[in-house]
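Budget justification aside, the reviewers requested a transparent look at the raw inputs and outputs of the sequence design task funded under Objective 1. We therefore reproduce one unedited record. The lines immediately below are the structure tokens for a 372-residue chain.
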């Protein structure tokens, strides 16, 4: 048992230094329609489509943080950061303030001009990727041209070589699903050919009924096989590889236990990281409804960071009494790989469980037929 006196509580909840990392959403616009994207629906529903963070507001946000502590800005979100019309001045502001940048992009707008701006001070650029073939890639990332994205990646890689720059490290980020898992080894080969440094994979999180059967939860053996092949090739080609944990024989379809571990015990978002949407702060990927004005332009960031709401959330976690929303943390890094709840949004989890039970019944029937 850890005991805190009032002074400890004050420091750990109300006088917390600014975060080391800011995830900043620059726009709610996107130029392609990925089949698994959850952003396109939420933006339209909330009437936020087409908004962007102006460079003046970006500067206001930075000035409201603890710049002595801020180490990195990740330009990401559920849209395409490079569609922000102020992207060039925003990158210049980061460069002038010696702020390291990470960028997540679909790669379609990664022009030579943008690539030159990223040289040297951008630590990593992550290209959202579909597959190793044109057909698979474009069926997942609809509206993107496979050849154009590959050409843009190669141009950035060539610019790095010609200017003797080690950075940015280039990563391909495929979302693993049934239609693309067999292409993962070839994505490793493609990454080497394009001059990339790594491949970072994550499982599909199903948020629409037509994608339920695409989840690799229903194709565990196939998934494990191609993860293993990819690991062998990555080692051979000296490509860094981040993959989910392998499936095991254990599995759970218990709807009451939907794959969440006690992630709140290692929460990074209340002390070290913050997510800033175009219109306001989002404490984390799970919690979006706050009872305070989270507008990061009208309000100084550090005032929000140490307000009563944040202090109360920190207190509850430190004393072992997390709110219900934290008990079902949606951070993918802490989910149980063998639990069906890790792969489906709450809305479609019951349908996925029903499908899993249908498959189990079918397999059992086949086993009985073979034994007769």
């Amino acid at each position: 048992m850890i005991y805190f006196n009032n002074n400890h509580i004050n420091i750990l909840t109300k006088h917390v230094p600014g975060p080391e990392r800011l995830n900043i959403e620059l726009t709610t616009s996107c130029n392609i329609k990925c089949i698994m994207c959850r952003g396109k629906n939420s933006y339209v529903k909330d009437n936020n489509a087409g908004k962007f963070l102006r460079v003046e507001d970006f500067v206001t946000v930075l000035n409201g943080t603890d710049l002595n502590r801020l180490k990195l800005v990740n330009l990401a979100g559920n849209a395409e950061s490079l569609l922000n019309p102020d992207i060039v001045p925003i990158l210049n502001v980061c460069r002038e303030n010696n702020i390291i940048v990470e960028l997540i992009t679909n790669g379609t707008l990664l022009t030579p001009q943008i690539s030159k701006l990223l040289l040297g001070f951008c630590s990593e650029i992550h290209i959202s990727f579909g597959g190793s073939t044109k057909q698979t890639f474009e069926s997942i990332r609809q509206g993107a041209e496979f050849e154009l994205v590959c050409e843009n990646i190669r141009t950035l890689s060539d610019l790095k070589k010609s200017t003797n720059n080690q950075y940015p490290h280039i990563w391909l980020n495929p979302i693993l699903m049934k239609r693309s898992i067999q292409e993962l080894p070839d994505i490793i080969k493609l990454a080497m050919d394009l001059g990339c440094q790594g491949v970072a994979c994550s499982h599909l999180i199903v948020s629409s009924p037509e994608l339920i059967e695409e989840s690799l939860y229903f194709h565990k053996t196939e998934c494990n096989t191609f993860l293993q092949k990819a690991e062998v090739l990555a080692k051979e080609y000296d490509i860094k590889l981040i993959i989910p944990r392998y499936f095991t024989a254990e599995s759970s379809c218990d709807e009451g236990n939907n794959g969440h571990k006690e992630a709140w015990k290692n929460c990074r978002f209340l002390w070290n990281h913050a997510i800033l949407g175009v219109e306001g702060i989002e404490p984390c990927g799970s919690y979006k409804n706050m009872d305070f004005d989270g507008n990061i332009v009208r309000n100084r960031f550090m005032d929000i960071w140490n307000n009563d709401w944040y202090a109360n959330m920190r207190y509850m976690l430190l004393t072992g009494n997390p709110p219900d929303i934290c008990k079902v943390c949606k951070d993918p890094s802490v989910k149980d790989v063998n639990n069906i709840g890790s792969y489906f949004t709450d809305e479609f989890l019951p349908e996925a469980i029903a499908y899993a039970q249908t498959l189990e019944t079918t397999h059992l029937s086949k086993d009985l037929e073979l034994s007769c």
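The longest strand covers residues 122-129. The radius of gyration is 22 Å. Computational costs for records of this kind are itemized in the attached budget.
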